[in-house]
């Protein structure tokens, strides 16, 4: 693995951005966890018959949509944690596949990127 060629200032900038993104994702996770609890309670109510309500989404739809959003947020948090770990161990900005430097512009667009643009294209 090649050592990172980023400056300390660049690494600090990416770390700060990832920390902010982690905080935002954690807030969304807590918000959706609360919303899931509400849907869970509503679904457990035996008298709730939302399947025949033409005015809005059913509890099953709500559950499905919120479950998908929760999975996305959890995945985002995992990617952020891995990126922060790479900063800590000195491998941030190095392609996990070929070992070359990931362009700063790519990291600006996708700070959790683990592949350089060429390897990302090949992975598609």
Query: Could you tell me how far the N terminus lies from the C terminus, measured between alpha carbons in angstroms?
Result: 23 Å
User: How do the SSEs run, as a string of H and E?
Assistant: HHHH
Rounded to an integer in angstroms, the radius of gyration calculated over CA atoms is 20 Å
State the secondary-structure class: mainly alpha
Largest sheet: none
Find the count of extended strands (DSSP E, 2+ residues).
0
Question: How many H/I helical runs?
Answer: 4
Shape: elongated
Strand fraction band?
Answer: under 5%
Which range best describes the helical content: under 10%, 10-25%, 25-40%, 40-55%, 55-70% or over 70%?
Answer: 55-70%
Summarize the structure.
The protein has 124 residues and is mostly helical. It has helices spanning 8-44, 59-89, 104-109, 117-123. It contains four helices and no strands.
Features:
4 helices; mainly alpha
Task: Provide a descriptive summary of the structure in words.
This protein is an all-alpha fold. It is built from 4 helices and no strands. The relative contact order is 0.16. Helices cover 65% and strands 0% of the residues.
Describe how the helices and strands are arranged:
Layout: H1 8-44, H2 59-89, H3 104-109, H4 117-123
Helix pairs in contact: 1-2
């Amino acid at each position: 693995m090649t050592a990172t060629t980023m400056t300390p200032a660049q690494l600090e900038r990416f770390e700060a951005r990832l920390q902010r993104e982690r905080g935002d994702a954690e807030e969304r996770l807590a918000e959706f966890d609360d919303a899931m609890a509400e849907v869970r309670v509503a679904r457990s109510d035996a008298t709730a018959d939302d399947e025949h309500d033409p005015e809005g989404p059913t509890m099953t739809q709500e559950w499905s949509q919120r479950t998908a959003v929760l999975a996305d947020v959890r995945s985002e948090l995992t990617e952020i944690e891995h990126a922060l770990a790479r900063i800590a161990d000195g491998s941030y900005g190095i392609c996990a596949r070929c070992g070359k430097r990931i362009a700063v512009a790519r990291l600006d667009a996708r700070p959790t990127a683990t592949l350089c643009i060429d390897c990302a294209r090949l992975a598609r």
